[in-house]
Amino acid sequence: MVTPFPTGKHPTATASSCKNAANVIIVLLILALLQVYNNNELAIASAVKEAHLRCNRDGKIFSGEESGYENVGSKHECCVQCTTPRKQCCLVCSDVAPLREHDLLMASMEGLTHHVMETFQSGNHTAEVKQSHGFLKERAWEGNSHIGNRPAQATFYYDWVRSIQRTDNVHRVCEIGMNGGHSAVIFLAGLYASQKNSGIHLTMFDLSAFEYSKTVEKYINVLYPGMFTLHAGNSRVTVPKWTEEYAKNGVYCDVFSVDGDHTYEGALIDITNAAKATRKGGNLILDDMNPNGVTRKAFDEVVRDGILGDVRCVEDVEIRVGYDNRIDETNARELKISWCTATVI
Ligand SMILES: C[S@@+](CC[C@H](N)C(=O)[O-])C[C@H]1O[C@@H](n2cnc3c(N)ncnc32)[C@H](O)[C@@H]1O
């Protein structure tokens, strides 16, 4: 801000000092007007910046300018650039939900974790069960358990499923891998937020073998009554069985999320079966796609076989995961995560 008079000097009350004071007032008025203009400019600039920031804020998610992606108009500006193939867009800015909506989504992820953990912890379990089933926290911390504490990935899934819904009809999302129900809630929340589409359904395939699995199933059913079905059992059996039964009536998945068995063999079977359960032109989204991992190897093979095409991956996104929750930095660890999408040919 401008100081009207130099500090330490007191002007004397002469005609010239009155003239000076009038000049100062005019200067101040001009400055005030400039400030209003500047504020407007700043507001516009910061809105633009926020659009970039919200794409950038968790880990290295890329914005148009930084990525070098060629803009095709601001609405279609690339917000999340794929790392494979480079220079392709994985999400445009107009597909990205407002920052506050993302925050609410992440808050609901915390709530879900706490509900599931508390329900489990209050149960009378043996030490063995406690150890193996308390892993919702431990494994989430290791990066293997759910996407609810990975904002970059969680918000991507949310925005991505809605971006497809905007241009294509998405009624049925199928998923292998429920665990704590985080990704299921993300899909349902994303689709349900849009009034465009009624009759949405999430068809889940999971072993349902954890003490808290029933709690999760109940939780999702309360949030989205009649919109969630769990097929308990090994996905190698349940997915083909479901496809056989439903395809007869022309029912297929529009979107399929694969996040179950993370061994090479298990992933190969799941990805192949998921592609068969999904309609032609439908979409798959796959977790744990780090470029050198075994699940990625399985995915690449299915692509090479010509079953899936239009592959888009976001790789090696760095995140920090706190042990107790997303915010607490105590014992936080750094992880690199990757995910891919593809279309069924
Ligand atoms: C990584 S977690 C899923 C996380 C969830 N998609 C999320 O992000 O919120 C993997 C889940 O797949 C289940 N699973 C592993 N192998 C399976 C199989 N062969 N059939 C069905 N479910 C399986 C596990 O029990 C676990 O619930």
UniProtKB/TrEMBL annotation:
Database matches in Gene3D superfamilies: Vaccinia Virus protein VP39
The record's section on SUPFAM superfamilies has: S-adenosyl-L-methionine-dependent methyltransferases
How is this protein named in the record?
Class I SAM-dependent methyltransferase
What organism does this protein naturally occur in?
Cyclotella atomus
Q: What is the lineage of its organism?
A: Eukaryota, Sar, Stramenopiles, Ochrophyta, Bacillariophyta
